[in-house]
Amino acid sequence: MQIYLPIAEVSVNFFTLLGIGGIVGILSGMFGVGGGFLITPLLFLAGIPSAVAVATSANQIVASSFSGLLAHLRRKTVDIRMGLMLLVGGLIGSAAGVYVFNLLKELGQVDLLVRLCYVFFLGIVGALMLIESLRALRRARGQAGPAKPRRQRNWVHTWPGKMRFRTSQLYISTIPVILIGLSVGVLAAIMGVGGGFIMVPAMIYILGMPTKVVVGTSLFQIIFVTAFTTLLHAVTSHTVDLMLALVLIVGGVVGAQIGTRIGLRLKAEQLRVLLASLVLLVCGKLALELFVRPDELYVIGGVGG
After folding, report:
1. 91-101 per-position pLDDT tens digit
2. CA-to-CA distance for 145 and 21, rounded, in angstroms?
3. How many structural domains does the chain have?
4. 122-134: per-residue pLDDT in tens?
5. Quick check: 255 and 29 in contact, CB under 8 A?
6. 64, 255 in Cβ contact below 8 A?
7. Which of 45, 131, 144, 158 has its CA 20 to 30 A from that of 107?
């Protein structure tokens, strides 16, 4: 069943798009990530132009993240105050990222920028997460001796502007929190991601938040940043395809509820191993495409002229 996407100017199988949305929704519910690191490359493979894939995938992330957030709110595993601090930086970073995206789009360098960003960030984050999560998994099984006690104080406790986050049981500076949100906002605009693959490990390893609170809080911030990013892309570059977004949203909302239930059945260490493995798999696929000669060396036309 083929459907025509007016902004992307291509015809794509309806069930393929629905399946992509469902997979990303499951990831959102399981890991607290928007899933953009996967949905954008999958849309590339489905034949969607890069500018449309980046702008529209941010739209789908809003829906899947909201669906997952509702489940976490019912379980009271969302730190609203932490989420608001992350949001301050996220909105600023998103505006800056959209400006850079549109500038490179005019220069015809968007495709290269997006793919290089994916390979760089996914490779580093995925490798670090996999190493740490495998160590944590071995400790949980008693194979690596007793776990070292977590340091009670680090550099986030020494900076000024401290605030108490009761849900996370933290009293730390708001500066690193805002900086994390800022970096995630930039990535959301340039890569069409929610930024959860950066924010989740940063919240765990830098801020020291409990894993059970990280997922819901991450989704809270992702919703507003990606919604703002989508609005900016729609107004400035006109690359948001509503038909594509609608199909992805339907699959994402259903998938997020399934993913939340799956996530509750797995241990935190197992979740981190799965997420790290998936991040590295996507990174490897994109890195390979940078070196493999394309079937067609020249493409005539395209979104944005």
Report:
1. 999 899 888 88
2. 41
3. 1
4. 788 778 778 877 8
5. yes
6. yes
7. 45
